[in-house]
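Researcher: Quick one. two chains, 518 residues in total.
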Amino acid sequence: MKTAYCIEVENLNFSFDKNIVIEDVSFHIADGQYTGLIGPNGGGKTTLIRIILGLLTPSSGTVRLFGEPANGFMRRYLIGYVPQNASQAEFYFPATAHEIVRSGRTARVGLFKRFTKADNAAVTHAMETAGVVNLKDRLIGKLSGGQRQRVFIARALAGDPKVLILDEPAVGVDTASKERFYEFLHELNKNSGITILFVTHDLGVIAREVETVLCLNTRLLCHSDPGVFTEDRLIEIAYGGKVTPVVHGH
Amino acid sequence: MPEIFQFDFMLRAFAAGAVLAVIAPVIGIFMVVRRYSLMADTLAHISLTGVAAGMLTKTYPLGGALAVSVIAAVGIEKLRTSRAVFGESAVALFFWGGMAAAVVLLSMAGGFNVGLFAYLFGSISTVTTRDLYLIAALGVLILATIFLLYKELFFVSFDESLTRANGLRAENYNLVIIVLAAVAIVLAMPIVGALLIGALMVVPVVTAMQFAVSFRQTLFISIGISLISVISGLVLSYYLDIASGGTIVITALGIFALVWLITAKKRS
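Model:
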């Protein structure tokens, strides 16, 4: 059977003010795959994700989503996204966790249409999956970093995505919650068959959890099964030498 | 029947005031959460150019205000998103441009007069039947737009980046918010006046936010506060023979102070 790819990136280049941020990057992510994206700060990880999401236009090269050109791809709600620093979101915004999660279904519902019973059921299901049903009436600004993180994951799930992209999802989350969080992603991938692509600096989790690792430092330095590397070797490839991984605790 | 309801001009003021009281916070809540609180003031000042043009040409000042306000709203948004200048500078350029044009036009029209003061500070006795029809039509337009686009406007207000990532045209929704604000300003001008319009869009919303409830509840509470402010402000204005705009805004600020004190315990 032919492998179906949800994300195909070919010869991608991105420059900003003559600085090359991404150079000749190509890779495919198959349906249901669990992929980790690593690399040094400034190595282009967030830029790559923003290009896939359609928030940035590449200088050259192509991105295909579910076999269609990303440019003009209409079903973007199929890609759920949990942004960087989601745990430090707006403190004063007057909205409950439920309202925030439900907003994640906006694009799927469609213009001029109201949320139906089925939509509300999907929202509730997303909140159950992310374990935030008990927070539904709490204001987003009153939640802890970890709770907010899960609310944003529920928001991403509320649109019934086929792919979930997370940009440094465990930043600002304590170690115990981090472990539970990775376990949660693992189950989501295995049980719901959702394709996961996440950016991380946590090489331990890369070595342990993901099926495929992408190391990006302007160019794609590796694209393989993490099992073939030791953690030290990964650091060497992605960060150019045996350095202590950067800890993002701020 | 109390004396206050025996005058046609007061009935028109109450009718226009009620529409305004509902509309101002409905669009104001999106301005507040998007940190556009002072945008309303800018648009109000710019719309004075339209008022001045209307006076100069002896046409309809409120119609002129509507045209100028909407054009300026689109212009500010285009300049802001072009990233040629800071967003704040884009607003400031239009603010000064609008005021300068208004002053020039007014001097051509023979200087400042009583008619202008009504547009600056609001005056319950100046709401004409034609104003009332315009206010009602614009009110329905704003409410219908917000009702139809509520989920998109909420989404773009909370997370513009994700709205784009989901394939929605965030820039269009931003434009809708600012154009509706421009329309609401014209609607509010005869009652509260150009100088205090921003307050009616912002103060009831900020007050409702002190209760720390959902977005939807914040919206309904702010409409309630706005209605109380406008109606009691108009009544006080009538009996004490004082300016309606100022009375309404002072009432709204008084409610804010009260709510802030009551909810202080909850916050700490």
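Chain A is about 30% helix and 25% strand.
Researcher: Thanks, that's what I needed.
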